[in-house]
Design goal:
Blueprint (H helix, E strand, L loop, with lengths): L3 E2 L2 H5 L2 E4 L7 H11 L8 H9 L2 E7 L2 E10 L4 E9 L8 H10 L9 E3 L6 H5 L23
Parallel strand pairs: 5-6
Antiparallel strand pairs: 1-2, 2-3, 3-4, 4-5
Length: 151
């Protein structure tokens, strides 16, 4: 399925957002997550491919080339986990991350969910614009964290 989300201001600059997984430049996404991100450093390529396969993915493209990316892990009924959100350095400071999150939050299949979740150490200002707040009752939440290791 090819779905393009366009905004006139960004379209004039050559930017589009698409959920078409065929457009994803896997090398660019993998290199960013593995080498530049703080949250997925060391992710095995096979794990990323499987994650993309089982997620709703949003790519930002500049004249057809990958400029940003995000994944949503969801059942499209009650819950969504927003993750792996990034804009490449050369495309930052233009409002693309805000446009990306806005597009995701307005996505038809993600309306009416009971709960959204995400984790960030440095983008609270971005996400708070869309209603994200620190987790209520964090003592109720539990998790398992297994860092990636390269064999």
């Amino acid at each position: 399925m090819t779905v393009f989300m366009n905004d006139d201001a960004f379209l004039k600059k050559g930017y589009t957002i698409s959920t078409d997984k065929e457009l994803i430049d896997i090398d660019t996404v993998y290199n960013y997550l593995d080498k530049e991100s703080y949250w997925a450093k060391g992710i095995p390529r096979e794990k990323l491919l499987r994650a993309i396969e089982h997620s709703l993915c949003f790519g930002i493209y500049h004249n057809g080339r990958q400029a940003g990316f995000a994944r949503v892990v969801t059942d499209e009924a009650t819950f969504a986990y927003l993750c792996d959100v990034f804009v490449l350095n050369e495309h930052r400071k233009q409002g693309l991350s805000k446009w990306l999150v806005q597009t995701i939050m307005n996505w038809p299949g993600l309306q009416g969910l009971r709960r959204w979740s995400l984790a960030t150490s440095d983008a609270h200002g971005l996400y708070s614009q869309f209603g994200f707040t620190p987790i209520n009752n964090p003592e109720r939440w539990m998790g398992i964290f297994t860092p990636y290791t390269k064999d």
